[in-house]
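Hi there,

I know you've been waiting on this one. I reran it after we fixed the sequence typo, so this is the corrected version. Both the input and the resulting structure follow.
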Amino acid sequence: MKRILLIATGGTIACKRSDAGLKPLISSEELLAYVPSAREFCKTDALQLFNLDSTNIQPGHWLAMASAIEEHYEHYDGFVICHGTDTMAYTAAALSYLIQNSQKPIVITGAQKPIDMEITDAKTNLSDSLRFASCDRSHGVVIVFDGKVIAGTRGKKERTKSYDAFSSINFPYIATIQESQILFYIDDKESVKAPAVFFHELDCRVGLLKLIPSMDATVLEYMAGHYDAVIIESFGVGGLPSYETGDYYPVIEKWISLGKVVVMTTQVTNEGSNMSIYEVGRNIKNAFGLLESYDMTLEATVTKLMWILGQTKDRGRARELFYRTINRDILWKVSG
């Protein structure tokens, strides 16, 4: 029987009602008590790492989760992290970079309703996650939610209330779970040959600028004093505007002259960016060698940059690492 470590971090799944609204109060041991059927296929221990609304999760918490898994890695066959849904996609992506080449499954799950409610998705999600973590064919960092198994770098919360809150963006589901059966669409555990590698540094000085029509480029200039890298969420397949009142060219030039990293991505959820299509994208990308996310999610782009800059500040090395595919995060590299 597989040994699984349940790591509780809070979130809706662990919430109870308070005068101020829902608040994480249910312990890791209490969570397990709601899924007694899991004892039929795994032996589970519980660890209460913290008990937070996921709105309050920060990079330091990602490092703590990775450290807890590293500490217990040799003693368990798989890991399940209970987490709030609001920042779950960021956590799943961050753990994909902090824990690489894991032949053991690291599952992140949660719920849209607390587990102590009569009508809830929490019991199913937790049971499915323990089942997937107990499967011989499972590996790596994934999200399990509403019967879907999503690569840790491809998840995105697209619905605020529905049980099918998460989608896999620009990549197929790894598997689905139906009536206690796991149906794999991608079954590639044998391809993981290298031993697991754990990383211990993140650079939190990564900023995000979401463009809107008429936005002044001086906003980006202000950010240069506060961040080591910036991600610019542009329109469509990607480009930077040039208005009569000024354009982004000199500000981007300043960022590059300071040795900082600029990454272009798109505000559109599906199908990715390609700055080479339009003049507004191609010219400035070629002039400064800007990085581009292509088919990566925003959550993966943010956390990958934090991981990269935690390893190196060299722009050439950062470019190499950014375009390296990790846990299926980037597949479509037009000119990486």
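Quick highlight: The longest strand covers residues 42-52.

Best,
R. S.
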